[in-house]
Design goal:
By secondary structure, the chain is an alpha/beta fold. It has two domains: 134 residues, Aspartate Aminotransferase, domain 1 (Alpha-Beta Complex), CATH 3.90.1150; 234 residues, Type I PLP-dependent aspartate aminotransferase-like (Major domain) (Aspartate Aminotransferase, domain 2), CATH 3.40.640. It contains 14 helices and 13 strands. The strands form three sheets. Strands 3-9-8-7-6-4-5 form a seven-stranded mixed β-sheet, with helices on both faces. It has a three-stranded mixed β-sheet with strand order 1-2-11. Helix 13 crosses helix 14. The longest helix is centred in the C-terminal third of the chain and has 20 residues.
């Protein structure tokens, strides 16, 4: 008797995505993650990468990775709490702590696990989380894993966040107020000064996920805490090593006691093998570059200003009316309909621009967009060519006049 496939329902789900026009196949990068590269054999101007400063191919990072591999091998061989803590891991964490101006830091295997592992480690079912409605999925998952009660406040609405805090102020349990520093889909910046004041007023723990601000905002890329000058007012800072830093991983910063508590209770830290020595060494080199080559961040922002201005002049909806206005190198081209967005993305790719379509459930229904990100290593000529293609394809599809 033939066995019935218990996963057959997944084929139906995939067919639904195809009917909706939001089904996609993974694009495969053939060479380096660079401003101009080859995906699926096609040469494209890359506007889809989080490689803000071009550090994925920086010579100092390459050499650091090679030297560490020659000296220490290719893997750590264990989780951090058993035999997998290497001197390089400690050196990296100490370097990040100094860079961020905090007592201590712990590195996780990804930014996602840093968020999810931290929230679920410090809160339980008797506690409360007050969370921005557009916070990243890793924050949402961490909140759910903690089993704490979740109160959502309207995006960047400090008054509503304070109302939510006030509603539970007299109830037992810890309170955590949490926001992205930079929101990954719209590129806008969280209102940290107001949120910090609200957290202080009600004795809440203040937490910020600075993944898309690390290496982008603040002095030498120190993030939104430095950008707003709220040092000492944010209890938990989360960052990433996978975007502007150019490698892989996430990190959490705070007091020494807080970090040591995560050693004992953060499940991703306890049950995942630590970073290969090459990755730790690469990240150390990246922070050296941030300190010593500030011109990279200056070029990033120069390119960002140029691209945003010209893209807006083409007539695309890049946010600011019914959606938040971008304030960072993340610039969404908001189409709305999922199928139209994916068709636009495919047409751009065929004409030589890599701009990935993003639809539900990553963004709400009716908010589908092509998210573009410029980098420090794009040339103005490359950006101008990309803008010409964007305009031409947008007009041909009736997306702009």
């Amino acid at each position: 008797m033939a066995r019935i496939n218990p996963l057959a329902f997944l084929s139906d789900e995939l067919n639904t995505l195809k009917e909706q026009g939001t089904y996609f196949k993974l694009r495969v990068l053939d060479d380096e993650q660079a401003p101009v590269c080859h995906f699926d054999g096609r040469k494209v101007i890359n506007l889809a990468s989080n490689n803000y400063l071009g550090l994925t191919t920086h010579p100092k990072l390459r050499e650091a990775a090679l030297e560490a591999t020659r000296k220490y091998g290719v893997g750590s061989g264990a989780v951090r709490t058993i035999a997998g803590t290497m001197k390089l891991h400690m050196e990296l964490e100490e370097k990040i702590a100094r860079f961020k101006g905090v007592e201590a830091c712990v590195v996780f295997q990804s930014g996602f696990t840093a968020n999810a592992g931290t929230v679920s480690a410090i809160l339980g079912k008797d506690d409360y989380i007050i969370s921005d409605e557009l916070n990243h999925a890793s924050i949402i998952d961490g909140c759910r894993l903690s089993r704490a009660k979740i109160l959502v406040f309207r995006h960047k609405d400090v008054a509503h966040a304070e109302e939510q805090l006030a509603s539970v102020a007299n109830l037992p349990g810890k309170k955590l107020l949490i926001s992205d520093g930079v929101f990954s889909m719209d590129g806008d910046i969280g209102p940290l000064p107001g949120l910090c004041a609200a957290a202080e007023k009600y004795g809440a723990i203040m937490m910020v996920d600075d993944a898309h601000a690390s290496g982008v905002l603040g002095r030498n890329g120190r993030g939104t805490i430095d950008h707003f000058g709220v040092h000492g007012r944010v209890d938990i800072q989360v960052g990433t090593l996978s975007k502007a830093i150019g490698a892989l991983g996430g990190y959490v910063c705070g007091t020494r006691d807080f970090i040591e508590y995560l050693y004992h209770r953060a499940r991703p830290f306890l049950f995942s093998t630590s970073h290969p020595p090459s990755v730790a060494a690469t990240c150390i080199a990246a922070f050296d570059v941030l300190e010593n080559e500030p011109e990279l961040i200056e070029r990033l922002w120069s390119n960002t200003r140029f691209f945003k201005k010209e893209l807006g002049l083409l007539g695309f909806n890049i946010g600011g009316v019914t959606t938040p206005a971008s304030e960072t190198p993340i610039t969404p081209i908001i189409i709305g309909d999922g199928r139209a967005t994916m068709d636009f993305s495919k047409a751009l790719f065929e004409q030589g621009v890599m701009g990935t379509g993003i639809a539900f459930p990553t963004v709400p229904e009716g908010k589908a967009r092509v998210r573009t990100i410029v980098t420090a290593t794009h040339t103005e000529a490359e950006l101008s060519q990309a803008l010409e293609i964007l305009g031409r394809v947008g007009k041909s599809m009736g997306l702009i006049g």
